[in-house]
């Protein structure tokens, strides 16, 4: 499943400040209200520690089941059965059963942090956000470099003037 982190162009280790910065870029890229609402929901989930932990767990279990989009609770069992039929290793089957059990048991908590399928599809179409985030950071570094260079030049000119 494409993660919220992928959608907004950050890593799962991103700080709240990194996420906030990425959200600005994502909102600029959003072309309609559905995408903007989904991006705001992503920020709400990733900015709150408890919600973020629940989201990370749900993402891990969805990936184990091979699900690409958020699904209804009844579709979890179908996905697990399909995955179990394709898997012959006992340890992987245990992992799949554990993921299904966890998602089913806590479906309410996990569904609170997941977008609807329609929202997820709309926002997944955004592209270039990660590039924009990286370029934005590079732009900030260039600005800092130019500012430091200007201060050094001004300091050198002042020193030359006073030492004459």
Salient structural properties:
transmembrane, 164 residues, 9 helices, mainly alpha, chaperone
> Could you name the ranges where pLDDT drops below 50 across 5 or more consecutive residues?
none
- Mean of the pLDDT scores? 81
Give the strand content.
under 5%
* Helix content bin: over 70%
User: Pairing-aware structural class of the strands and helices?
Assistant: mainly alpha
Element pattern in H and E = HHHHHHHHH
Main pleated sheet = none
User: How many separate structural domains?
Assistant: 2
Number of helices: 9
Distance separating the two termini: 68 Å
Total DSSP E strands = 0
**What is the 3D form?**
elongated
Radius of gyration, taken over Cα atoms and rounded to an integer in Å: 23 Å
Short description:
Keywords: Chaperone, Membrane, Transmembrane, Transmembrane helix. The chain has 164 residues and is mostly helical.
């Amino acid at each position: 499943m494409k993660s919220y982190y992928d959608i907004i162009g950050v890593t799962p280790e991103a700080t709240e400040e990194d996420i906030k910065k990425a959200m600005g870029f994502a909102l600029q890229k959003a072309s309609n209200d559905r995408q903007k609402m989904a991006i705001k929901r992503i920020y709400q989930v990733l900015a709150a520690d408890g919600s973020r932990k629940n989201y990370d767990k749900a993402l891990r279990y969805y990936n184990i089941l091979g699900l690409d989009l958020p699904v209804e609770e009844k579709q979890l069992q179908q996905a697990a059965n399909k995955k179990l039929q394709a898997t012959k290793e006992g340890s992987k089957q245990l992992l799949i059963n554990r993921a299904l059990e966890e998602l089913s048991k806590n479906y309410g908590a996990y569904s609170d942090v997941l977008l609807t399928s329609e929202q997820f599809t709309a926002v997944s179409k955004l592209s270039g956000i990660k590039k924009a985030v990286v370029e934005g950071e590079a732009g900030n570094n260039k600005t800092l470099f130019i500012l430091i260079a200007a201060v050094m030049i001004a300091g050198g000119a002042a020193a030359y003037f006073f030492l004459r």
